[in-house]
Amino acid sequence: MTTVIRNGTIVTADLTYKADVLIEHGRIAAIGQGLTGDTTLDATGCLVMPGGIDPHTHLEMPFMGTYSADDFDSGTRAALAGGTTMVVDFALPSPGQGLLDALQMWDNKSGRAHCDYSFHMAVTWWDRQVFDEMQAVVDRGITSFKHFMAYKGALMVNDDELFSSFRRVGDLGGVALVHAENGDVVAELSARLLAEGNTGPEAHAYSRPPQVEGEATNRAIMVADMAGVPLYVVHVSCEDSHEAIRRARSQGKRVWGEPLIQHLTLDESEYFNPDWDHAARRVMSPPFRDKRHQDSLWAGLQSGSLSVVATDHCAFTTAQKRNGIGDFTKIPNGTGGLEDRMPMLWTHGVATGRLTPNEFVAVTSTNIAKILGMYPRKGAVLVGSDADLVVWDPEAEKTIAAGSQQSAIDYNVFEGQRVKGLPRYVLTRGHVAVDGGTLDSREGHGEFVAREPRGTVNRALSAWKELTAPRPVERSGIPASGV
Ligand code: DUC
Ligand code: ZN
Ligand code: ZN
Ligand code: ZN
């Protein structure tokens, strides 16, 4: 059985041209003029692009006393409905739990996936066992390791652990990921705010000002430089963090920044909504910022100093959010966005002229496929690539509404937003999962994507050289004690 996508315009990260795409056995078999197949999908007036890759999701994750509400079933349905054909989730060992043990848990959950997926491995504690197991994790095709510099007492690692783990990731040819917020300062600010009677969701934003993110991002960059490891900074929300990334990149360091669609389009005024539920539903870390920071993020995407747009999809129901009534530190942190990332970025990025369609493909798919070592199997429209494709109708419109979403939660942070630019067809390894507004995907269709290490040859860091023990200095005489 072959499928052909006819009469469309192919848009990749670097090319725009008219051609048909022939698909066979889940892969792109030919690209050219006048192709025919057993099934024809009409792409007249549409753009044929690599399916979106969301490298930052938390599906069915145990967190803050509960589990995130979207699992690999509803989460990957949401992804496909919005034009995203692959997610990268975080396998998260609880403190003391082995990496391979945690990986087994994520293997079990991900059997329900409707689209392809991969994992990042989180390093949430450090000892010899973790060090040893990291090799086996890389051998499984998981080459990116996440570190939390916040969530003190739970997921946070200290600088000594960060440095040790970064060195190990560098030696294994992997990439280090960081959630960059100064967890000690956040804990202190949170306790002070609560003690002063600030218990509402707006206090969440005050407990995590841009400075905590800027400081931690700078620190992570310097530690990565000393450790000799490429660094990917997740959910860059503010100029303070972006500025550190810009500077590092201008110095030749391999550092990438990932803004979220939420931070690009929603701002901190959401936390001052008089409706407690409205504000709490938008509590995530880092919090939404003001216009100045949003402008910085858009500028970063335009100039290339920021590389990827993700969601950090970590959805909680209103009932789960209400656990934090009377204490903002108990509101589960997280928002959804998987289904809306591509239409929202098209609407606010491409339709406004801030991004070209090629840049849209780069930041939603191709760049992360390269960073994570799965290009051109993913993130490309090339003969031999997986047929993970989106046929994008730039004229189609809808109003975002929780009532018609795939996500399992009872609201949507983008509720009521009008978007222009939607998928007409979405293909996951050649299977048509979205046809018009209709989702027809299959639980269990998704496969794990093993990834390649980046290698250790060009770590391309400014100051880094192998840290070898210095030759002991020869001295004559031994100083008297106390001198
Ligand atoms: N931030 C969130 O808002 N949720 C999940 C984890 C994180 O870092
Ligand atoms: Zn995070
Ligand atoms: Zn996250
Ligand atoms: Zn299949």
Automatic annotation (TrEMBL):
The keyword Nucleus does not apply. CDD domains: D-HYD. The modification N6-carboxylysine is found at residue 146. Keywords: Hydrolase, Metal-binding, Zinc. One of its GO terms (biological process) is nucleobase-containing small molecule metabolic process. InterPro entries: Amidohydro-rel, Hydantoinase/dihydroPyrase, Metal-dep_hydrolase_composite, Metal_Hydrolase, Metallo-dep_Hydrolases_sf. GO terms for cellular component: cytosol. It catalyses: 5,6-dihydrouracil + H2O = 3-(carbamoylamino)propanoate + H(+). Carbamylation allows a single lysine to coordinate two divalent metal cations. Residues 47-418 form the Amidohydrolase-related domain. Its EC number is 3.5.2.2. Its cofactor is Zn(2+). It is an enzyme of class 3 (hydrolase). It comes from the Bacteria. One of its GO terms (molecular function) is dihydropyrimidinase activity. It holds the Pfam family Amidohydro_1. Catalyzes the hydrolysis of dihydropyrimidines and of the structurally related DL-5-mono-substituted hydantoins, to produce N-carbamoyl-D-amino acids. NCBIfam families: D-hydantoinase. Belongs to the metallo-dependent hydrolases superfamily. Hydantoinase/dihydropyrimidinase family. Homotetramer. This is D-hydantoinase/dihydropyrimidinase. It comes from Paracoccus sediminis. The gene is hydA.
